[in-house]
Specification:
This protein is an alpha+beta fold. Among the domains are: 34-194, Alpha Horseshoe (Leucine-rich Repeat Variant), CATH 1.25.10; 498-644, Beta Barrel (Cyclophilin), CATH 2.40.100.10. Helices cover 52% and strands 7% of the residues. It has helices at 2-6, 10-28, 38-48, 52-55, 64-77, 83-88, 95-108, 114-123, 127-140, 147-150, 159-172, 178-187, 194-206, 217-225, 229-238, 245-254, 260-270, 275-285, 291-304, 310-316, 323-336, 341-353, 357-367, 374-383, 387-401, 411-423, 427-437, 452-458, 467-480, 498-501, 529-540, 627-630; strands at residues 509-514, 517-523, 549-553, 557-560, 588-591, 603-606, 619-625, 639-644. The chain has an eight-stranded antiparallel β-sheet. The longest helix has 19 residues, at 10-28.
């Protein structure tokens, strides 16, 4: 090649080299996202605006990619008037369009979708479309028509996955029977695929009002021996629906599983048994190497321990356990103690010496176990600056008020406290106090002369920032006026920044530096453009720097991004929910919300598969590095910086 070049004109050689450099530069340049296509921008903009009418023509577009995107978009819009139009695409020549139509129909959550889904199943030749049809059928099927799902003739073993997830989606809605249970148990068999076993296990663990007594054998095998920890943890949860001796024995052993998430779920199921039969396992778990296990155990102690356990609980409060665990144990001690004043004084002393605002908040929660502590709690609730403390304080006062031993002499003072809380116009105070005064058993209608103070505060709040407070106030006003509650509408207020979207790589990585280490996320801009561009804009501005993870639920999520630090914070805008038929897996990153289309700044990362969130909370990123860090996160851990790589 070198000799050949020597014989060519220099100018031609330069042209060849330049062309080669140009090709190299193209290879090394960032991979663009799909929104270079202006038609896709138009489609997603219509989805963002919830403009069904203008989107409908794209369902018949000659380009199958545009048909697919528009069809999938109805899974976010969820306009039931479009069911017939979307169902038409179940006959599309493209399998991906048919699958998108099946998904969107399930998202409609309307029984009108049953007939077209069933008709399509009769002729569908693509297994991955059939899987989606069966799962979506579970989202809309009724108890009367359940057998159309249960007895659907499976064409291949891969169809079992669709059946498992269809049963699960129906079970979440309390649509199930003994046949569903038998089918799900059979699908736990190790010969079935991981996704089939996972769907079946979640059906057995999360379906409402399920009694598995006498059917625990194969579930125990799955919870003990399945090679996937995700299947084991879901099966361990299912054993909480089978209250019998062999389930108790199995769960006691499973509580020592190598994966902390399985241990957490085993403890949750054990909590449904008599405390005398589980206390040894629960007390041992308080000192587990993973703090999430200890937190779960402390919650069980708080709910299940009785006066006979007081000495043991008191001893545990002196062992220097992590703050959140210790606060729960102190609260249990206060609840069980006959002489409460010394315990209250001990908790107050712990509060005064605490360095962490979040530990202080937990200690106020502990004081919520006795109305005798109300004066200290009231003082801290209204005097402390950190929002997390004030929110914990009003929550503790609410707990005191619903205490069955609440003294009658405090009823009037507490009514004034909750009125004062609402009149602060603090959204958390309103949300918590509002939930108490609308409790019909507490008869606040007889306490307040009128609901005028509620309407006065309501007039000062604005959507979308104050939506949670507005929702509660509207409920309270309707309650006091004996009217029907109508949910407030959150209007479209924050269009997607399309020029910014076009500059985001479809494989964009962001680096989150925290107190516990680094977590890296891959942005899913092609699936959730509005959420991604919102998150990146906030990250670039430094919005998240220095904020805390304010919520950690063991084997569920860690959550951050709140400007108040208590979960009630947000800005004066909201973005739309974006549902792209993705599943919540380990390390999925989702947008927190107060209902559909109310997302803003808060987001969460899942510890494990959480399929009950699928199609209800936007997934906009995926953890690529640092899940070990995620699993170590605790409430109060700080986000130092978020940077784009």
């Amino acid at each position: 090649m070198y000799k050949l070049l020597k014989s060519w004109p220099v100018a031609l050689i330069i042209i060849i080299i330049s062309a080669c450099q140009s090709q190299v530069e193209k290879v090394e340049s960032p991979v663009s996202n799909k929104f270079e296509n202006e038609e896709l921008v138009k489609i997603y903009d219509l989805i963002d605006k919830r403009d069904s009418k203008q989107l409908l023509p794209y369902l018949r577009h000659e380009n199958d990619t545009l048909r697919y995107e528009a069809t999938l978009g109805f899974g976010s819009i969820q306009d039931t008037s479009a069911i017939k139009n979307v169902a038409f695409n179940l006959n599309d020549g493209s399998p991906k369009v048919r699958k998108a139509a099946a998904y969107a129909l399930g998202q409609m959550k309307d029984t009108a979708a049953i007939a077209p889904i069933v008709s399509s199943l009769e002729v569908e030749d693509s297994v991955y479309v059939r899987q989606q049809l069966l799962e979506s059928l579970g989202k809309v099927i009724t108890q009367e028509k359940l057998r159309q799902l249960q007895y659907w003739p499976l064409k291949t073993s891969d169809d079992k996955q669709g059946l498992a997830w269809g049963l699960y989606r129906a079970g979440l809605r309390n649509v199930h029977d003994g046949i569903s249970v038998d089918l799900a148990i059979s699908l736990l068999d190790s010969s079935n695929s991981y996704m089939t076993r996972l769907g079946a296990a979640h059906f057995l663990g999360r379906s409402r009002n399920l009694d598995l007594k006498g059917r625990s054998g194969l579930i125990i095998k799955s919870a003990s021996k399945d090679k996937s920890p995700f299947v084991r943890m879901a099966s361990a949860l299912a054993l909480g629906n089978a209250i019998e001796p062999k389930s108790l024995d199995a769960l006691t052993a499973i509580a020592k599983d190598s994966d902390y998430r399985v241990r957490v779920n085993a403890l949750r199921s054990l909590s449904k048994f008599e405390f005398k039969d589980i206390k040894t396992t629960v007390f041992e778990a308080l000192d587990d190497e993973n703090v999430n296990v200890g937190i779960t155990a402390a919650g069980i102690v708080a709910n299940k321990a009785n006066e006979n356990d007081l000495e043991a609980v008191t001893s545990l409060t002196k062992q220097g356990l992590p703050g959140r665990i210790n606060a729960a144990l102190l609260g249990t001690q206060l609840k069980l103690a006959e002489d409460k004043q010394p315990v209250i004084e001990a908790i107050i002393s712990e509060y005064n010496n605490a360095a962490s605002d979040y530990y202080k908040a937990d200690l106020l929660g502990a004081l919520g176990n006795s109305p005798l502590a109300h004066e200290f709690v009231v003082t801290k609730t209204f005097a402390e600056t950190p929002k997390a403390i004030g929110t914990a304080g009003i929550t503790a006062l609410a707990t005191m008020r619903v205490n069955e031993n609440f003294p009658q002499k405090l009823e009037a003072p507490f009514a004034d406290i909750f009125k004062q809380a609402i009149e602060t116009k603090d959204i958390a105070m309103i949300a918590v106090a509002g939930s108490v005064i609308t409790d019909p058993d507490l008869n606040f209608k007889a306490v307040y002369d009128s609901a005028k103070f509620l309407t006065e505060v309501r007039s000062t709040l604005q959507l979308p920032k104050d939506i949670e407070a507005i929702q509660m106030l509207d409920r309270a006003i309707a309650f006091f006026n004996n009217e029907e509650y109508t949910a407030p509408e959150n209007e479209y207020n924050h269009p997607i920044d399309w020029p910014a979207i076009k500059g985001i790589d479809k494989e964009q990585i962001v680096k989150i530096s925290t107190d516990k280490g680094v977590v890296k996320l891959r942005m899913l801009v092609n699936d959730a453009p509005g959420s991604v561009v919102n998150f990146i804009a906030l990250a670039k501005s430094g919005y998240y720097n220095g904020k805390n993870f304010h919520r950690v639920v063991p084997n569920f999520v860690i959550q951050g991004g709140c400007n108040r630090g208590d979960g009630y914070g947000g800005e004066d805008y909201s973005i739309r929910s974006e549902f792209a038929n993705l599943r919540y897996e380990e390390g999925s990153v989702g947008m927190a919300s107060a209902g559909q289309d109310t997302e803003g700044t808060q987001w969460f990362i899942t510890h494990s598969p959480t399929p009950h969130l699928d199609g209800s909370y936007t997934i906009f990123a995926k953890v690529t590095e640092g899940m070990d860090v995620v699993h170590k996160m605790e409430v109060g851990d700080k986000i130092n910086t978020i940077e784009l790589e």
